[in-house]
Design goal:
Order of helices and strands: HHH
Distance between the termini: 31 Å
Helix content: 55-70%
Shape: elongated
Number of strands: 0
Strand content: under 5%
Structural class: mainly alpha
Number of helices: 3
Largest sheet: none
Radius of gyration: 22 Å
Length: 83
């Protein structure tokens, strides 16, 4: 999993909608923390979207193998037997 919580911070300039910015300040929001959290979530989402596209062929081959041969080590499973 991508983890960003221990990373160093770097000052950055952003252009934000002035009305949204004013209201966020009125609401006492921490802009840096909010933008950092939302950006990290968007980065995670796009990273895994790209990963799925780049690995689609391998995923398809694995799924076909499981369909054909069953799950590896399935005989050792002690849960969901008979389903």
């Amino acid at each position: 999993m991508l983890r960003f919580d221990d990373s160093a911070k770097r000052p950055t300039n952003l252009s934000l909608n002035i009305k949204v910015l004013e209201l966020a300040r009125e609401l006492g929001m921490n802009l840096s923390q909010t933008v950092d959290a939302l950006l990290a979530e968007e980065v995670r989402k796009r990273y895994f979207e790209r990963w799925n596209i780049e690995n689609a062929e391998a995923i398809a081959h694995y799924n076909a193998r499981v369909e054909r041969e069953g799950l590896p080590l399935a005989k050792y499973r002690s849960f969901m037997k008979g389903r």
